[in-house]
Amino acid sequence: MTQLDFRLPDIGEGVHEGEVVRWIVPEGAVVAADDLVVEVMTDKATVEIPSPSAGTIAKHMYAEGDTADVGEILFVITTDGNAVSSSPETSSGKPVAASAAETPAVSPQPAASPVAETNGKVLAAPATRRLARELGLDLSRIAGTGPNGRIRPADVRAGERPATGPSSQAPPVLGVREVERVPFRGIRRKTAEAMSRSKFTATHFSLIEEVDCTQLVISRNGAKAVGEEQGVKVTYMAYIMKATAKALMEFPQLNAELDEEAQEIIIKKYVNLGVAVDTPNGLVVPVVHDVQSKGLLQIASDLVDIATRARGGKLTPADFKDSTFTISNAGNIGGILATPIINFPEVAIMGVHSMRKMPRCVGNDIVARDVMNLSISIDHRIVDGADGARFMVRMRDLLENPTLMLI
To answer: Using CA atoms, how far apart are residues 122 and 138, in angstroms rounded to an integer?
Structure first.
């Protein structure tokens, strides 16, 4: 028998570590080459990693929720010595692991010690280090229960708890106090890290604009019928994306990012729209590229494609690449107003809210109109309030008069 150490591959796009979200194959199970073994999440995407060879999964080196650096051993597989490793890329083009390195045997995990170190360095993920700082705890004095003594968030929280004992003055139990503990990992943890970084870096300010969508409803009804003939579902979101791309080309300071190291503002002359999609596993933000050069039907088709793949867990790292501006649309769920958090390092994000029949003045008459609010959060370091207001007025004009998008 031969034992292979399978290491976390370099998935690209500047990724240095990945979180083990789910073990698809348990220890002791037999796999064929290219069978999916583990689901790993990076800052860019969730990737299902296959086995490089037929054999038996001898050992998981990380538990679900642990973070592994690129190049560290994810799992050990035993083979008959004649198996051929699979190629580093599947036929679908999804990035997978590079070939595994043979080792004579699996190294046993060292027991956890009060000081979890390798060559004097405490082993802990960035999120774990941040948690320790927030709680005022010294990581070097905490016992790590992860692989090679790596300190997990649970270890940090355990170090925070005071000693408890029986109390002679316990209050009476008034009722059942049920709780459920859900692991803080996967998309939820990545979202939390990204939102915290954005909120503590970008200086947010918000603007709200009301849009009379009565003409938009009429235009969309006509486009919907045309789209159905071509097998394309035309939604209001396609119109909003088209208007956003046109407005950003006119106000490119909102289609930018700040290079703090070079002290330069990077203004982008193309529009790649990140679209927040609610999925069973949490919120993801895939990207529709080059919206400024696409027609309404193409935008609608692209939108259906990424939303479908997002909800099916089929997005790839390329689907998250190079967004320049983000739209968050919760209008189909409800709510008339929100102040979304910027998808850093972008400088603005626009919220789209529910459309409702409302009484409004048209001339001297009060009539029923289809009304929707748009909200935008902007990084005040980069964009002045007046420019943000002009952008929102342009969005209102384009959506209230959809034919302007054709000019």
So the answer is: 10
The 10s digit of each residue's pLDDT in 213-226 is: 999 999 999 999 99
Residue range 15-33, pLDDT digits in tens:
788 889 899 999 999 999 8
Cβ burial, residue 390 (10 Å; 0-12/13-18/19+): middle
Q: Are 237 and 220 in contact (CB under 8 A)?
A: no
Structure tokens at 220: 């969309």
User: Residue 63 has which token pair?
Assistant: 């538990």
DSSP conformation class of 106: P
Taken in order 350, 353, 359, 362, is the CA torsion positive or negative?
positive
Following DSSP, what letter does each residue of 159-227 receive, concatenated?
A: HHPPP----TTPPPP-S----------HHHHHHHHHHHHHHHHS-EEEEEEEEE-HHHHHHHHHHHHHH
Neighbours of 201 (CB within 10 A): 15
What is the mean pLDDT of the segment spanning 289-296? 96
- Is residue 92 exposed (0-12), middle (13-18) or buried (19+ Cβ within 10 Å)? exposed
| 289 belongs to the catalytic site | no
